[in-house]
Amino acid sequence: MDVFLQTLVAGILKGGLYALIGIGMTLIMGVMGIINLAHGQLMMLAMYVTFVLNRMGVDPYLSLFVAMPLLFLLGVAIQKFLLNPLIKADTILPENQVLMTVGIGMALTEIVRFIFSSDYKYITTGYADKTFFLGSISFSMALTIAFGIALAFTAAMFFFLVRTDLGRSIRATAQDKDAATLMGVNTGRITVITFGLGAGLVAAAGCLLAPVYYIFPDLGGPFTAKAFIITILGGLGSTVGAIFGGVTLGLAESMGATYFGMEYEDIIGLTIFVLVLLFLPGGFKRLTKV
Amino acid sequence: MKKNLLPFGVVALIAALPLVLKDNYYLHLMILFLMWVVIGSAWNLIAGYTGQVSFGDAAFFGCGAYTAGLLATHLGVSTWWGLALGGFTAVAVGLPFGWICFRMRGAYFALATLALNEVLRHGATIAENFTGGMVGILIMPTFISKIPYYYIALAMAVASLASLQWVVRSKPGYYFVSIREDQDAAESLGIDTHFYKMLSLAYAAFWTGIAGALYMNYMGFIDPTVVFNLHDISIMAILVGIVGGVGTVYGPAVGAFVMVAVQEMFRSGFFGLFKWLGAVSGSASLVHVAEVLTQAHVLGFGILVVLVILVLPNGIVGDWPKIRKRVFRLGAGT
């Protein structure tokens, strides 16, 4: 029973971070209808920002305030100069934007590899390996803090989307681009802001993950895949779904690692992905209608 | 008339090339080029004609390669059997996948193919007893000379182009294009879009699998990271298609030539140009540039993807009128 509870706790804590990664992805997907295959790479970049700042003596959680604006600007630049021009281009394949994000992701990974080499980097903090106990269940200090911050960001994001003017414009653009344009929403600007927001959110996830994970250039790919699985699980473009999807994936991964073996961790996510497509196409969104 | 003869002329030229070109290095590049013609045109049918972009060509490629390799290690038969069976294995993997995943459209399907490739790569890594895991499969190549491989690859490339030509001119070919242009309209006209998408996928998987089997025979070594490689196989296949021209018969052939050349240019540091320059001028920085460039071939790929999509969204063959106009105008100006 203890093993089960321990796995459950580990999975939920991990799931909080996954939710943060997934929300960024689902926002971009909802508003632009494209999948950002450079998502994990953006997170990798944020982790390196954290790493560099950490070498200068900045706490990883404080570097949130540097990494998020930086990545927001990078996301804005990517959308404005690389993705938006493609909408006007007349091509046979509508997937050119997705391909473009693949190219961006590859370029980011390799540029980072140039600067930092392929070596694994670590961030050493006083609390990364600290744990505290509730009963017989141990909680990783860093992961618990990360979970708390992730929850705060998710709540803030939710409030932003539901209550503010800009958030409403984003949701309107996601629902119907043409109608939003007719209602006076500058949809071009909204896509730019959304990509920036998505990048900023995933940057937050990167900063939170940095103290408890290795940092290396090829980290982006697997996390892009995870973000995609989360969004499919949660339903495309659904923020609430992304939270559920993130927690589900986190749980499934830690359960799988405990009961099947570590090497199956990646396969479990992909299996869930196929199962959801088969039995619940549309994801959790279909159940909750949010 | 002239246009119809051009492909035959090119094939004749390529067939005659080994008589002149004795250097194994260039023969190797040509074999790779011919192999990529096969993969590129297969990708072009599913993505360019049917509009279902595949990010997971490596999955089918790997299936073909592993069929050849596993037949040799487990049954002790020649790896050349893989050339006959590899395509069918890839189809056997592709059809159930397509049956499930063709309910997704556009980019979501593309991601599902990505996932298929990941599953197969992890599967091949974990099933160590069956596939050898990360140790991979090593076989002795049948021929020492590269010339037999060259002609086999050439025959495959010609056969794949001929079959592509035939398919796109046939009735299913037109159905494929109608699905690409508007799936709902195609469906409402009574086309079984699911069936035709599967047909298109089967074709693509078949040829990609055969190319994989050829790779096994020719290179003599595979492991999961080599054949199920996202960058070097799947993205390369996409680039070959896009650079050459999506939805054109000869586009991927042109794209394959350009991409193999570009890949080799990065890998060899612009064919040793910078190294040579460094040696001549005695400047250490140029030697360093050469080293950096050889490491940068994936970066070059990434930047190339970005540039090609921005500047030539329809590829060299697809945008040929545009290129000609621009070059002509440039010529008139000077």
User: Terminal Cα separation of chain B, in Å?
Assistant: 33 Å
* N to C succession of SSEs of chain B: HHHHHHEHHHHEHHHHHHHH
**What structural class is derived from the secondary structure elements of chain A?**
mainly alpha
- Tell me which protein chains meet in the greatest interface and how many residues each side has: A-B, 45 and 47 residues
On the 0 to 100 scale, the average pLDDT of chain A is 83
Beta fraction of the residues of chain B? under 5%
Give a verbal description of the structure.
- Chain A has 290 residues and is mostly helical.
- Chain A has helices at residues 2-32, 39-55, 64-88, 96-116, 141-163, 165-175, 177-182, 187-209, 220-234, 239-259, 265-279, 285-288, and strands spanning 131-134, 137-140.
- Chain A has twelve helices and two strands; from the N terminus they run ααααββαααααααα.
- In chain A, strands 1-2 form a two-stranded antiparallel ribbon.
- Classes of the chains: A mainly alpha (290), B mainly alpha (334).
- At the A-B interface, α3, α4, α9 and α11 of A face α5, α12 and α16 of B.
